[in-house]
Amino acid sequence: MDPLVPTILIPASAAVGVLFAVILWQRVSKIQMTGGSVFRSGDRAYLLEEEQRGDDEVIQKAADIQDAISEGANSFLFTEYKYLGVFMRGSRRDGAAPSFPLRREARRLPLFSRQA
């Protein structure tokens, strides 16, 4: 491969990535966000309202939030492990797990050797 190809390809792909990020930033910045109702007492009225509902309802709401977080985390981890599996499988053509290349001399030396 000509050494000029990576010299051009790497900065060009970085520029495309930055351009794509700017386009997405502009799209997201156009989204109008409306806040919830503002309480005069610094949101204490909402907290007092939640407190009056009772312990059972608060515990149920906390359990629902915990389930949603757990489901999202498991989904994220499953996707990450799937990508990792594809990467690890594709890193060697024979399908074996990838190994770190070590020189023969380094393999024979003890781990904490003072020899160079």
Automatic annotation (TrEMBL):
<dbReference type="InterPro" id="IPR004131">
    <property type="entry name" value="PPase-energised_H-pump"/>
</dbReference>
<dbReference type="GO" id="GO:0016020">
    <property type="term" value="C:membrane"/>
</dbReference>
<protein>
    <recommendedName>
        <fullName>H(+)-exporting diphosphatase</fullName>
        <ecNumber>7.1.3.1</ecNumber>
    </recommendedName>
</protein>
<feature type="transmembrane region" description="Helical">
    <location>
        <begin position="6"/>
        <end position="25"/>
    </location>
</feature>
<keyword id="KW-0812">Transmembrane</keyword>
<keyword id="KW-1133">Transmembrane helix</keyword>
<dbReference type="GO" id="GO:0004427">
    <property type="term" value="F:inorganic diphosphate phosphatase activity"/>
</dbReference>
<keyword id="KW-0406">Ion transport</keyword>
<keyword id="KW-0472">Membrane</keyword>
<keyword id="KW-1278">Translocase</keyword>
<keyword id="KW-0813">Transport</keyword>
<dbReference type="GO" id="GO:0012505">
    <property type="term" value="C:endomembrane system"/>
</dbReference>
<keyword id="KW-0460">Magnesium</keyword>
<dbReference type="GO" id="GO:0009678">
    <property type="term" value="F:diphosphate hydrolysis-driven proton transmembrane transporter activity"/>
</dbReference>
